[in-house]
Amino acid sequence: MISFEELVRLTAGKLLQYQQEYSIQYVLTDSRRLAHPVSSLFFAIKGPFNDGHRYILNLYQRGVRQFVIEANHTVRELKSEPSLRQNFPEANFLQVSSSLEALQQVTAYHRQQFTLPVIGITGSNGKTIVKEWLAQLLSPDERVVKSPRSYNSQIGVPLSVWPINQNHTLGIFEAGISRPGEMEKLAKIIQPTLGIFTNIGQAHAEGFVSREQKINEKLLLFQHVNLLFYCLDHEAIHAAVKAANIPAFTWSRYQPADLQMMSGAVRGSQYTLEFRYQKQNNLLVLPFTDEASIENCLHCLAVLLNRQVPAPEIQQRFLKLAPVAMRLEMKEAINGCYLIDDSYNNDLSGLSIALDLLQNQTRTQKKTVILSDLLESGLAEEVLYQQVADLVQIHGLNQLIGIGPLISQHQQKFNLSRVFFPSTADFLKKFNPEHFRNETILLKGARVFEFEKIVNAFQQKIHGTVLEVNLDALVHNLNFYRSRLAPATKLMVMVKAFAYGSGSYEIANLLQYHRVDYLAVAYTDEGISLREHGISLPIMVMNPASDSFAKLQQYQLEPEIYSLYILEACIQALPNDLRYQQNIHLKLDTGMHRLGFTEADLEELLTRLAATSQLRVVSMFSHLAGADEVQHNDFSQLQITRFRQMAAYLETRLGYSVSKHILNSAGIVRFPEHQMDMVRLGIGLYGIETAGAKQNALRLVGQLKTTVSQVKAVAAGDTVGYSRKGVADEPKQIATIAIGYADGYDRRFGNGVGQVVINGQRASTIGNICMDMSMLDVTGLEVKAGDSVEIFGENSNLTAMAQKIGTIPYELLTNVNGRVKRVFYTE
Ligand SMILES: *Cc1c(COP(=O)(O)O)cnc(C)c1O
């Protein structure tokens, strides 16, 4: 806790307005995450894509009274002291040179007030898993405060450290950096007393000149630790630690170290390792067999040994470890319900993030949370459940289902429709699917409550094929394109054709959350469906049917007007009320020759517009026919010139200014100087850079997966599938998989053209693709029924796949049939 006065002193900022003392219990950087208005301190941070100052008025209206702002912002209400007094009569304002720095100073100061041991974790991989596992492994002895999920950035670390209080006995925080200079700041906030350096990737990442520079930068986290845990076998780390003279606890697979692995063997789903510590050999059984998990376990083992946890205890605790589900999944369930599956842990900060997500789902009106007891909070029970109840309250939910003895004890604190069960088994015994209908349900449970059983009860029986959509990757791509735009350029995102196959509502909702300016769909029905699912962004409809204008008005959709004919249909449908205003977008044909007005139409267009006061042209645009191909550069330039001329002429004649735009995804990358007022992002958002120049900057969004239904041996001379096209010239193993052309696996991938990946191995199709199934030649491969098969994803290049059958990635994406279930997840 800190007073406003201390805040002024700490940040050496300028006190612009002080009205009265409020308590500062929460720090807030994202206006969407407001939970406790009166006791929150808002830091208005300017990022590359957003500016916190823009949300201050809104936050004030919602009850926030304490603000840290910067001097050079563009928000009028904040510009002068009289204006502050007038617009924010009850608020305190502190002005600093950097709000982010102020947040870091304040949390560093907060950290200093506590003497608890703190473990700082960095490295290229495994940070979050090691953190989560250590918290689990040490929780019988400690009250742990830790970073939620992978909050390890310049903003994430301060937000992670702020909740430390006097009840905690151990802190575990992760730190991630992307450029020099960042770790020093994180180290000041975390102030670790112990450190773990997990590993270092081979590639020297963007932002650093060399791998050594990156290692040394990361080491800055550990300058003052009493002990650093790391693996000797990462030679570059070892050399750097020695050079920096940091006291160390080492472990190794091959050489003498404080903890040495002597041998290891896989037995079924377990890994038994023999290790040597303090001259004694011991056995430890781990419930994992993959390399990465074993490395993560050894980091944890080193810490447990050093903290003198007795050997039998260590063994017991390791056997209870479960894989950390890094992803928070969203999926369809019974009776039109929708699940947010966050069933792997339950602590306060994670709960708050998940409730935000639930609140931001507009797909269903009704929202339910199923919540277990919270573990590892470090708060007195009374205080803890009051905070949980407050969180649930402010997120405006309809129903709470509490599971566990503790939450049940505190049920009277919850002020909404509620039911409680002592255990997951009790809930399942009484589970009636009919009680749940058209609602979004968040499942948030501590591991011991085994909420995965509840997830199973809710899940629909599904066809074996799923399209997994990585929402974090999508946001990454969105930010990549945004970073290429001038600050004033607006962003329209194309979500036509089911958002290029990814799922319209979910993508639109995410885009709305990330504040894009416009959405565009192909047909009126697509727009209506978005509105019915609660999407309130402006939506342009590119191809409105002439009889759909009444619906367009009803749902506040904005038509693309591309011909005099469609303009007439639009005018005919206008209501009699002369105050009614219909926003329209004019499409100009500059060479694509698909839709759009040509120069010959302009006079008549202007005459009609001048005669109809209810129409307002909000944008004019054109579409490039070959933006992604160098060979068409001259033509693209010609289109741009034509567009600029036509648009300037129309604008002058209309007598008011109108937004202009011409660039699609490839255009954004290739013709940044022609951004004009807005751009229209399409396929790039979904991770495909058709210009081919920036593919590495994008992340894969969709992975199409199915399962093996059956594996069988086929004798030499036999054939496989329809028309006997697949011929076994020798004895073969054949796997049948649950995807066919009706799902979107193109028939042209048959007869060896298509390749898929099973258990890391490539397999080719054999015979014709069937409607719902396909056959693979898996001779000599390790494949069994039930195995997962990647049709496209991490291991495939969608552009190359498309070329193989003479098409483009757009078609592969949009061909994934609507019956294929979409699973959305965040990492
Ligand atoms: C689909 C579409 C876009 C987006 O194109 P991408 O190549 O996917 O970026 C832009 N403008 C119009 C008019 C479109 O139809």
Automatic annotation (TrEMBL):
Keywords: ATP-binding, Isomerase, Ligase, Nucleotide-binding, Pyridoxal phosphate. It catalyses: L-alanine = D-alanine. Belongs to the alanine racemase family. This is Alanine racemase. It holds the Pfam family Mur_ligase_M. The active site is at K496, Y722. Its cofactor is pyridoxal 5'-phosphate. CDD domains: PLPDE_III_AR. Pathway: Amino-acid biosynthesis; D-alanine biosynthesis; D-alanine from L-alanine: step 1/1. GO terms for biological process: D-alanine biosynthetic process. The modification N6-(pyridoxal phosphate)lysine is found at K496. It comes from Adhaeribacter pallidiroseus. Catalyzes the interconversion of L-alanine and D-alanine. May also act on other amino acids. InterPro entries: Ala_racemase, Ala_racemase/Decarboxylase_C, Ala_racemase_C, Ala_racemase_N, Mur-like_cat_sf, Mur_ligase_C_dom_sf, Mur_ligase_cen, MurCDEF_CellWall_CoF430Synth. The keyword ATP-binding applies.
